[in-house]
Amino acid sequence: MKLPLLVAAAALLIGAAPAAKLTPNDIVAQSPASAWKAIDPNDLLVMDLARGGRVIIQLAPQFAPVHVANIRALARGNYWDGATIYRLQDNYVAQWGLNDSDKGFPADVVAKPPAEYTRSVKGLSITPLGSADPYAAGAGFVNGWPMAFDRKAGWADLTHCYGTVGVGRDLSPDTGTGGELYAVIGHAPRQLDRNIAIVGRVVEGIDRLSSLPRGTEALGFYKDKAQYVPIASIRLASDMPAADRPSFEVMDTGSRTFANYLRLRANRHDDFYVRPAGGVDVCNVQVPVRRKG
Amino acid sequence: MKLPLLVAAAALLIGAAPAAKLTPNDIVAQSPASAWKAIDPNDLLVMDLARGGRVIIQLAPQFAPVHVANIRALARGNYWDGATIYRLQDNYVAQWGLNDSDKGFPADVVAKPPAEYTRSVKGLSITPLGSADPYAAGAGFVNGWPMAFDRKAGWADLTHCYGTVGVGRDLSPDTGTGGELYAVIGHAPRQLDRNIAIVGRVVEGIDRLSSLPRGTEALGFYKDKAQYVPIASIRLASDMPAADRPSFEVMDTGSRTFANYLRLRANRHDDFYVRPAGGVDVCNVQVPVRRKG
Question: Is B108 at the interface with chain A, CB within 8 A?
């Protein structure tokens, strides 16, 4: 029963004097179970590297349904057998797939998905960031995801943050199938927002990608195939034996707990800090995700 | 004589139709020599790793004079003999120095430097970012450095971006001597702005830090000393033999070339992009720095 502690913390935060000196991590540690939502195992993509290490990705079917359906079909159809990480560009992305292979897609893959770069802002319940966004009229959080939006223009989109996973593509109007994916391993490349399909985010093991050697060719491609990092398997958690299946939950970004967390991310007042920032960028909030149970 | 090309490009950019489709890198490639300023070798700190690899840092004496003077004194006094990289926290910092050593400082090191976290905005010639900043009233560039500022409150500060180098410290009012330094290897931790002394930025070899294995202890400290990454030497370029001395230049952020570069960083319109962002955050501009000659 951690609820009384949380209520006390919230009361202190709303008060004028920041006497509590809680950190954002304290808010996570003290959060009630009701502040979390389980992630569907059909939305978890598990990538095992051949030399050890696992990277787990939460898919975002509500924002890029056709691309995510493709990714599930590619995983189930064993498309990625023999796949590698072949691109590591510092402060930008790690990218994997079959690269220049002419391997055919499983039958249920949509070869030319729609753009799915933005969606209508209508009907979205947005928890506002509360700070200015350099890239859009507004920013905030929807169902656990960081988003930018423009109510006047009518659009909303997922934002490229550290750990965001998107679909590699050639020049427009190609939107990519989902066969080649990348994860952001540096400062948020928000210029890609609304220009590429975002399909999810790494929820565990991003350091397995971010600590890989950088490629020395243009755009961070590895020069020699011997440098490619082999991938043992890419599976949906829902297709794994129940006993082996990883299980995650994400903080409900509509909860009071998240509101407190967000306020502290923008106003660090614990002992280390002399001056709370009074603002935060959407990619520096880092929606809490954790192992369940 | 690349000047005519640049003038043509500028004319096209100012015009309504973005016919040129130049990338920010094109602007750098076409820039005239007059758009660059040499970096003083007394402002270049050269860190050689014992197992190979070099990291080069540009110091910022105009913003943190006492801390930078300390760093020069530490380098000249061989304080860092036996130093290691002992902390690698994913999406945050790499940190190096002597850690818990009780080694004494060279005589000319100021043991308790002033905070040097901000300076007065008065007298600074700022090239404005032109986009909102989530952390401050304004952001822009001064003498090649990204800065945030608040004219009403009167302060300006260097911003924590990818590659920024700052001085590790304990709890305030300690400001650190400069003996323990960190470099940002992830998304800009802007909450540290105005809370810590920024002394420079990595201008070459940040990937030598960002690709190191992450530490598994709290805050990314390496668990075993065997994991520490040994540093062979940390020297000022000005103390190296002239023939070995690396030489760099930084784009003049007051130049017309930088104005064009900045405009394109905020409005990518080359073939890959469907929708230019119309904005950019100060840490995603990445002031061009390159080898000279």
Answer: no
